[in-house]
Each structure stands twice: as C-alpha cells, then as structure tokens.
C-alpha cells in the first residue's frame, strides 16, 4: 500500500513563502522512518533535519514540494471568497500534491479547526479520489507526516536564508522574533512600500504600514 504524508511550514510567518510538502512511501517502509529518528520537525535541530532529507528521500517513492509566495497568499486572503481563505488555499495546494502522488491513503496535518472539513476540502479539490485522514498535530502522530514536515521546514529555511542574503537580517520572518517587526518598520522608513517577500495582507503588516503613513503625515 502506498501512503502519503503532507504538511506545511511557514503558515504563521509574515515574511517568506508558505511551503507545503508531501511524500509517498510504501507502508512497509514507514517503520524505517521512525528508526531514522524522524519526528515533528520542530523537535529537531536544523542540522538534524538537513541530515534526514536524503534518508527520507531514499525511503520515499516520490516527494513533492509546492511553495506559495506572499503574493499568492495575499491574493487568497484578500479575495472575496468566504471565511477560512488561507485554509482553503492550503487545502487546494495539498489537493495538488495528492493528485501528483496518488496515494491509497493520505495523512495530513489539518489547518482547519474542523479537521474533517479540511479533509473534505482537499478531497473536493483533487480529481484523484483517495482516503484523506486530516488530524491536528498529525506531524506528532504519524511518521509519514513528520517526514513531510521535515522536508517543508528545510525547504522554507533555505528560502529564508536566500531572502536574508537579498534583504538583510530580518530574523525568522515570524513576528515573535523582534528582528522581524524591526525590519518591517525600518524598511518602510526608507522605501515607503514593503518588499515582495512580505505578506502585505497580514494584519500586523497592515498596521505597521498604517502607522508609518500616519507618522509621515504628521511630519509633513
């Protein structure tokens, strides 16, 4: 039986892409993932995640990575569609991965508060009909999802490293990192508009832009 695991990295950040990764693996090879030390990517060091990538790839039948740019995310969030716009975008992207991998069962880390609804949205968006099992914290429960989370995290870290080379040290891209909001504020002071690497639809990004505009008005 062919099993897929799908997970994402970078959903909550304000800088950089949202990376969604999937792996396809024979059911009998899943215990080998555990033996390698595969687990939730957040519980592993960056060095360990990097070291696991070739091992995961070797065990897998196929892997698939899709990167959603800040512009794609902004278009989805600011569209006139109904609620849970980012959830829908994730579900549609995961459906693309399901369609590519064609598993008999796909285990997915659910982005929606209603995991079953998230599974339904993936199934609706994929022409390839299979069993979708979406659960919260699936990356902690299923090694195949843990493996996908590692691939997604490593790929996002690589993208962030390239962006830091281009724009300077903005930290991790998450607002919990003081470097990130500081970078946004300082960039606006100099350039007036955000660079393409920032998700302009994020409320904190809008608030910082609005505050900067108010400050400029007072100065003039």
Poorly predicted runs of 5 or more residues: none
Q: Strand arrangement, largest sheet?
A: 3-2-1-4-5
Question: Major sheet, described briefly?
Answer: 5 strands, mixed
Strand content: 15-25%
Helicity range? 40-55%
Annotation keywords:
single chain; 220 residues; alpha/beta; Nucleotidyltransferase, domain 5; Arc Repressor Mutant, subunit A; 2 domains; five-stranded mixed sheet; 9 helices; 5 strands; 53% helix; globular
Please explain how this structure is put together.
- Helices cover 53% and strands 15% of the residues.
- The radius of gyration is 19 Å and the shape is globular.
- It is an alpha/beta fold and 220 residues long.
- It has helices spanning 30-36, 46-59, 70-77, 85-101, 115-125, 138-141, 143-167, 179-191, 203-219; strands at 2-9, 18-26, 62-68, 105-109, 131-135.
- The chain has two domains: 2-164, Ribonuclease H-like superfamily/Ribonuclease H (Nucleotidyltransferase, domain 5), CATH 3.30.420.10; 169-219, Ribonuclease hii. Domain 2 (Arc Repressor Mutant, subunit A, Orthogonal Bundle).
- The chain has nine helices and five strands.
């Amino acid at each position: 039986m062919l099993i897929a695991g799908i997970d994402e990295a970078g959903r909550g950040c304000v800088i950089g892409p949202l990376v969604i990764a999937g792996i396809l693996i024979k059911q009998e090879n899943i215990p080998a993932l555990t033996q390698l030390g595969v687990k939730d990517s957040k519980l592993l060091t960056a060095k360990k995640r990097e070291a696991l990538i070739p091992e995961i790839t070797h065990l897998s039948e196929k892997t698939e990575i899709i990167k959603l740019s800040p512009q794609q995310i902004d278009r989805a969030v600011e569209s006139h569609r109904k609620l849970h716009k980012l959830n829908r975008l994730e579900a549609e992207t995961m459906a693309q991965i399901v369609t590519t991998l064609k598993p008999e069962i796909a285990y997915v880390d659910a982005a929606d508060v209603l995991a079953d609804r998230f599974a339904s949205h993936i199934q609706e968006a994929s022409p390839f009909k299979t069993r979708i099992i979406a659960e919260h914290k699936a990356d902690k429960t299923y090694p195949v999802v843990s493996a996908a989370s590692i691939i997604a995290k490593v790929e996002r870290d690589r993208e962030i490293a390239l962006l830091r080379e281009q724009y300077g040290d903005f930290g991790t891209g998450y607002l919990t990192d003081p470097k990130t909001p500081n970078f946004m504020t300082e960039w606006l002071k100099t350039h007036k508009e955000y660079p393409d690497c920032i998700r302009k639809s994020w409320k904190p990004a809008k608030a910082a832009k609005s505050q900067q505009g108010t400050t400029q008005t007072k100065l003039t």
